[in-house]
Amino acid sequence: PDRKSLTSWDRAKRSQTKRVLITAYDHPFAKLAEQAGIDGILIGDSLGMTIQGGRDTLRVSLEHMLYHTEIVARAAQACLIMADLPFGSFEASPAQAFASAALLVKAGADIIKLEGGAPMVETVAFLSARAIPVCAHIGLTPQHVRQLGGFKKQGKTADAAALLLADAQALAEAGARMVLMEAIPAPLATEITKTLTVPTIGIGAGPGTDAQILVLHDVLGLSGGYVPGFARTYLDGASLMRDAIGRYADEVRTQAFPPPG
Ligand code: KIV
Ligand code: NA
Q1: What is the ipTM of this complex?
Q2: Which of 80, 105, 190, 211 could form a disulfide with 40 if both were Cys (CB 3.0 to 4.6 A apart)?
Q3: 70 is catalytic
Q4: 46 CA closest ligand 1 atom index
């Protein structure tokens, strides 16, 4: 079945078929995700934390995103490929956003994702009118972590919830083909999902969104300590891998590896 075209995502929403995304940043994990039947892969700027070891996503550059988008897109050809516009690569003007987004599309992205609500409506319209499909990311937007004062749940008051709903509608009207909501109350995410005709993706937003996404390293237990409360870990990957590397080291030291001859 078609997982890649945006029309297939629209159809999935209409038929209430849940879709699943995960982040991936390199060839082997992108291949595994696709083979596991994932519908979409996000090359997230979360790579600043998961693979670069940063405290937040603010140091990720467009060049980093282009490199990872290219290797993931080469590995996974049946899934939807979504790539993040990193901090500093799109906010100054719609023209800046277009130049950066076009490079991500050339690197293999089917759709680009950018963080921000009302201030990004004009940019979303500009990109959408120029052949670049956009997913708008609202709620907890990690590039705004310093303004938000931490990775905190958003949309908790009635006023904040109303603003998020209005933002989602404005972004969709501007042409956003998807809206991703991070760390907002489940009833709000459900209401936004019912209001919009475009597919919604949730993370920490309850079960009511059209699709779900998690960060690969959280799913596999490779995040080394901090995992957000809304994530779920399906494997103790760190222990298994540390163990395997340790066994290799032991075998060399005891001369069990390599074999003679
Ligand atoms: O960068 C990322 O991984 C993301 C997801 C958490 C939605 O933006
Ligand atoms: Na991101």
Answers
A1: 0.99
A2: 80
A3: no
A4: 1
